[in-house]
Amino acid sequence: MGVLRATATIFLSVILGALVFAYMAVQFPDAMESVFAAAGYVRGLMVDSGLVPPRYNVWVMFLVAEQQLVFLGFVILMRILMAMVAGAVGNSFGGRRGY
């Protein structure tokens, strides 16, 4: 049951992240432009800072794009929000106590 719940949570967070991503792009294009600029800055830090060894730097440049970083951020945000909602709902209905 735990594997099914984890899989459903990941799937739902990806779907919700994509929906929020699309909503933000349509309704708030200026804000999304700023988010993409910040993602470009983060990508530049990853590529140019020397944190990634040169033999892997080519793969970072090839595989990591601003769009992917922004989408990943939305998915992580959805996971956090889903955990907060699940925790609040679980606590209000007398869910598990302690771990």
Can I get a quick summary?
By secondary structure, the chain is mainly α. It has four helices and no strands.
Description:
The protein is mainly α and 99 residues long. It is built from four helices and no strands. The radius of gyration is 18 Å and the shape is extended. The protein starts with a helix and ends in a 7-residue tail after the last helix. The mean pLDDT is 89.
Write the layout of secondary structure elements.
Blueprint: H1 2-27, H2 29-48, H3 54-63, H4 66-92
Query: Gap between N and C termini, in Å?
Result: 17 Å
Strand content: under 5%
Radius of gyration from the alpha-carbon trace, in angstroms: 18 Å
Shape verdict: extended
**Mean of the pLDDT scores?**
89
| Helix-strand topology string | HHHH
Share of residues in helices: over 70%
Low-confidence stretches: none
Major sheet: size, sense and barrel closure? none
Number of domains: 1
Determine the number of helices (DSSP H or I, runs of at least 4 residues). 4
Counted beta strands: 0
SSE-based structural type: mainly alpha
